[in-house]
């Protein structure tokens, strides 16, 4: 429906099939989808001016030196930026622009009004793809085009689904003149008048399914997927099926004249033993797949995520929570990379692909680990990059490190509890994007920083530099 110059799009689902429609009129764009699990929509934000307060860092204690004013989003969540090192933060576009450009992309109507969320209620792992049907429009961080078509896939853990938010002709926020002011840059993530957006369910049963749980998924608490990644050597989309305890591949096919996404199990064991529950997966540029295997999919309630309850689950066949790799090519077998982390979760790589970062997602043991990567994919010299638990002044004890990404300048963005903490390559804290809501994951593309949580998905237009976006087929072939 269209009213008052507002664009809307919707998707209804029935019997596992999806359909979508988009109308365009006037300026603002919003999107919505109704399913049995709730509705989603998008909106805009308001913002204010920045203020300063605080003292400088000393004696190993991290102290904020300035804090911006708060931006309120349509999803009901608020965001502001905090500076810890003014010299370093001047190199981070997301901190220089503060949070005045944060706006809602996808809003969950089923999100709790509480500032905290359960582990199984979040939207996680937004993955940004460039249009598969227009390979010449592939986005480069250097700016090959001033607009682009993008798709953002993300996991709905509670709904056991993958959503796809698509936008056409989105302005590339990294293609600007250095002399341009913020007001001269089109900062609407939807592209205002030029962009058309749609929101659809891309696939159901993306974690737990009858294939990996023949008895059904009613008793599975963490039902959905935990990660989405695309092979750089093909258009294969690999899914960490946390609720299904496997790795799967997402394919699209036409059934009864409707395009359906379907995730099919591909790998389920290591040396004959069933995985705990693959938590996240990420391809390196050389085609090697790395993935984590924490026991989140074994949980029966949110309380199980505290302490060592999941380690004692009778469903476990592997006695450790591992990091694995699978080399590119036929006939390869899964190799163990690390078995010393207690809750290995999200994975990211440095721009040169010579460092791998992994978050450890456990209360009381929340940190980021780094590894040196060789050209053949092997890793060595692991060390703790940053230990959140060792810094109680950051007030993250009620949560733990989750999502992680690295920009083209090597700055590391880590989601922990209610903040996206941004570190230099030397692990110095530059600043943070903070919220009154618990956050889950972060992603980058087209000069935008996407942040997800139980509230949905927001985006900050900041000019953040990022590597080329992967391409994949996210619909049925014509």
Automatic annotation (TrEMBL):
Xref: InterPro entries: 6-blade_b-propeller_TolB-like, SGL, SMP-30/CGR1_Lactonase
Keywords, in A-Z order: Hydrolase
Residue ranges occupied by any SMP-30/Gluconolactonase/LRE-like region domain in the UniProt entry: 149-430
Region (Disordered): 1-78
Entry keyword Lipid metabolism: no
Entry annotated with the keyword Hydrolase: yes
Cited Pfam families: SGL
Any one GO MF annotation of this record: hydrolase activity
PANTHER family found in the cross-reference section: LACTONASE DRP35 (PTHR47572:SF4), LIPOPROTEIN-RELATED (PTHR47572)
Name of the molecule in the record: SMP-30/Gluconolactonase/LRE-like region domain-containing protein
Naturally occurring in which organism (per UniProt): Phytophthora nicotianae P1569
């Amino acid at each position: 429906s269209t009213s008052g110059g507002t664009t809307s799009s919707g998707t209804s689902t029935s019997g596992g099939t999806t359909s979508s429609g988009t109308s365009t009129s006037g300026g603002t764009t919003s999107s919505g989808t109704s399913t049995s699990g709730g509705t989603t929509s998008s909106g805009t934000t308001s913002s204010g001016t920045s203020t300063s307060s605080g003292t400088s860092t000393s004696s190993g204690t991290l102290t904020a030196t300035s804090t911006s004013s708060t931006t309120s989003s349509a999803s009901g969540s608020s965001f502001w930026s905090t500076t810890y090192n003014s010299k370093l933060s001047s190199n981070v576009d997301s901190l220089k622009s503060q949070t005045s450009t944060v706006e809602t992309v996808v809003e969950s109507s089923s999100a709790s009004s509480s500032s905290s969320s359960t582990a199984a209620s979040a939207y996680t792992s937004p993955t940004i793809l460039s249009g598969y049907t227009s390979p010449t429009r592939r986005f480069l961080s250097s700016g090959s085009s001033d607009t682009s078509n993008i798709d953002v896939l993300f996991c709905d853990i509670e709904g056991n689904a993958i959503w796809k938010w698509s936008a056409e002709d989105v302005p590339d926020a990294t293609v600007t003149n250095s002399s341009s002011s913020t007001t001269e840059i089109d900062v609407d993530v939807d592209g205002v008048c030029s962009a058309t957006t749609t929101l659809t369910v891309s696939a159901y049963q993306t974690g737990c399914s009858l294939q990996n749980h023949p008895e059904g998924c009613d008793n599975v608490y963490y039902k959905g997927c935990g990660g989405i990644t695309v092979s750089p050597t093909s258009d294969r989309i690999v899914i960490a099926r946390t609720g299904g305890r496997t790795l799967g591949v997402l394919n699209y096919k036409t059934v009864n004249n409707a395009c359906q996404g379907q995730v099919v199990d591909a790998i389920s064991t290591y040396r004959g033993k069933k995985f705990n529950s693959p938590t996240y997966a990420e391809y390196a540029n050389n085609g090697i797949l790395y993935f984590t295997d924490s026991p989140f999919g074994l949980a029966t309630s949110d309380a199980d995520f505290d302490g060592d309850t999941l380690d004692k689950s009778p469903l476990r066949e592997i006695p450790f929570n591992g990091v694995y790799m699978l080399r590119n090519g036929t006939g390869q077998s899964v190799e163990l990379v690390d078995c010393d982390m207690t809750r290995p979760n999200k994975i990211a790589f440095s721009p040169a692909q010579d460092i791998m970062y992994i978050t450890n997602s456990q209360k009381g043991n929340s940190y980021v680990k780094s590894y040196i990567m060789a050209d053949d994919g092997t890793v060595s010299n692991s060390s703790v990059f940053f230990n959140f638990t060792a810094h109680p002044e950051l007030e993250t004890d009620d949560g733990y490190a989750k999502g992680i990404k690295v920009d083209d300048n090597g700055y590391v963005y880590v989601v922990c509890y209610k903040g996206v903490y941004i570190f230099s390559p030397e692990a110095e804290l530059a600043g943070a994007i903070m919220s009154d809501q618990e956050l889950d994951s972060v992603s980058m593309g087209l000069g935008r920083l996407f942040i997800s949580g139980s509230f949905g998905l927001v985006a900050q237009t900041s000019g953040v530099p990022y590597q080329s976006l992967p391409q994949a087929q996210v619909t049925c072939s014509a």
